[in-house]
Design goal:
Layout: E1 4-8, E2 20-27, H1 30-43, E3 47-50, E4 56-58, E5 62-69, E6 74-77, E7 80-84, H2 89-98, E8 123-124, E9 127-128, E10 133-140, E11 146-150, H3 151-154, E12 169-177, H4 189-197, H5 204-218, E13 236-237, H6 239-248, E14 254-257, E15 260-263, H7 265-271, E16 278-279, E17 282-284, E18 292-294, H8 300-318, E19 327-329
Parallel strand pairs: 2-5, 3-5, 4-19
Antiparallel strand pairs: 1-2, 6-7, 7-12, 8-9, 10-11, 10-12, 13-15, 14-15, 16-17, 17-18
Bound molecules: flavin-adenine dinucleotide (FAD).
Length: 330
């Protein structure tokens, strides 16, 4: 295994921020992971794991060892799938759809690796990973201990899990229990109207194609316009707060959920007039208010400036706090 000193991470994060790793290695199997942990342990270095870097905001150089997870392998046993952490997520979705296995077709085209999917409990178009999740295997980066986590151990919530708070666990594989074709989910409004307008019956395959098509037209491609997807979480507020906001802003979208009322972060940013707002090369997308784009040589300082401006204008106008969704490394 090759350990590279002082490497630029520009090609390893989809926002293409040019920060450096003190040490870097790419692992492709579990023994490599053991070797990387040992390398870090003997030098007393912290470990940061990266998948495809599509949900990280690297604001500073990373001290210690950055491990890029490329551990591969997928096996199906009926509806049960076991996938190694370094597999590409969309590739796994495609394999499931080819077998007419459902449950993850709504999560098509989410960038990144399988191992990162449980970290923020990825979700889209009415489905979250936790809906079909069985278990995962992880290794503790300090002790080398291996452990299995059930769905309840993972403490999944909206874009959240135990692993966002206990960062020493490195996921090596995940197991999912997929569903028969008849169980596809198509109630999410944009998806439902896409299918209805075209008189398409909802199947695993048709939902997969619909979601892929909708995403291609709505979201900026990180390969063309470097970004990390939705930059802010949709704020959750009490029903009373939502009612008050609706009184002042009758057109504000409000979604009732079990925990309270969810507001649309994109709507708040758009209505605050922030689409296209920029500092240097970092800007709020003109196309999608929730996406922040690096137009070239954007710096971490410019990005922090844009985040602060968005948060403070939204707070001033709506008294709502916007929380950053991707993992920030300061
Ligand atoms: C255009 C675009 C659209 C997106 N759309 C969605 C969407 O619809 N829904 C959604 O939920 N997300 C979305 N995302 C966010 C992102 O795709 C997901 O969060 C994805 O799971 C990140 O995978 P990654 O491999 O790139 O993770 P990285 O960015 O490399 O890592 C993310 C975090 O997970 C940790 N991590 C990564 N791998 C492991 C591992 N094996 N073990 C332990 N920790 C690990 C990292 O340390 C980091 O903290 C989108 C991003 C983009 C750019």
């Amino acid at each position: 295994l090759e350990f590279l000193p002082d490497l630029s991470l520009r090609n390893y994060n989809t926002l293409r921020l040019d920060v450096r790793a003190q040490w870097f290695c790419r692992i492709t199997n579990e023994p490599d992971l053991g070797e990387a942990i040992e390398f870090a342990r003997t030098r007393n270095l912290p470990i940061t794991v990266l998948g495809e870097g599509s949900n990280v905001v690297l604001l500073n150089h990373l001290a210690g060892l950055v491990v890029q997870n490329g551990i591969k392998g997928v096996s199906f046993d009926g509806g049960r799938v076991l996938a190694a952490a370094g597999e590409n997520w969309h590739g796994l979705v495609q394999q499931a759809v080819q077998r007419k296995l459902g449950g993850i077709e709504n999560l098509a085209l989410i960038p990144g690796t399988v191992g990162a999917a449980p970290i923020q409990n990825i979700g889209a178009y009415g489905v979250e990973l936790s809906d079909i999740f069985s278990s995962l295997k992880a290794i503790h980066s300090l002790t080398g201990e291996t452990a299995e986590f059930s769905a309840s151990d993972c403490q999944f919530a909206y874009r959240d899990s135990l692993f966002k708070h206990e960062r020493h666990w490195i996921v090596s594989s995940i197991a999912l229990q997929l569903l028969p074709d008849s169980k596809t989910t198509s109630h999410y409004p944009t998806l439902a109207s896409y299918l209805q307008d075209r008189a398409i019956t909802a199947t695993v395959e048709s939902v997969f194609h619909a979601v892929s098509e909708i995403r291609r037209t709505r979201l900026p491609d990180p390969a063309v316009e470097p970004n990390v997807g939705s930059f802010f979480k949709n704020p959750l507020v009490d029903a009373a707060v939502a009612k008050e906001l609706r009184r002042s802003f009758p057109e504000m979208p409000v979604f009732e959920v079990v925990e309270g009322c969810k507001l649309s972060a994109a709507w708040l940013i758009d209505q605050a007039g922030l689409k296209g707002f920029n500092i240097g090369d970092i800007c709020v997308s003109e196309k999608h208010a929730l996406v922040i784009i690096n137009q070239g040589d954007g710096s971490p300082e410019e990005l922090v400036g844009v985040i602060r401006e968005v948060q403070s204008l939204v707070a001033e106008r709506y008294h709502v706090d916007l929380e950053v969704e991707p993992q920030i490394y300061e």
